[in-house]
Amino acid sequence: SLQSVMKLIVGAAVLDAVDRGELRLEDRVVLTRQDLSLHVQPVARIVRETGQFRTTIGDLVERAVVESDSAATDYL
Prior knowledge:
Elements: H1 2-19, E1 28-32, H2 44-50, E2 52-56, H3 57-66, H4 70-75
């Protein structure tokens, strides 16, 4: 579906920003309930249980592309 293709495009755009030095895969981010979308979002369980999810840009790229995680994609 187009949503799955979009996740790959977002992941590639983030990796391009990393290559240009605008982001680092090790950069820390925090997702909150406001970052959750309506689609597939494996991190949603963590956010709902704890109120937030502390992770890295690299982890979000992996979750977006490998797990098709919409919340990770939306954040990126």
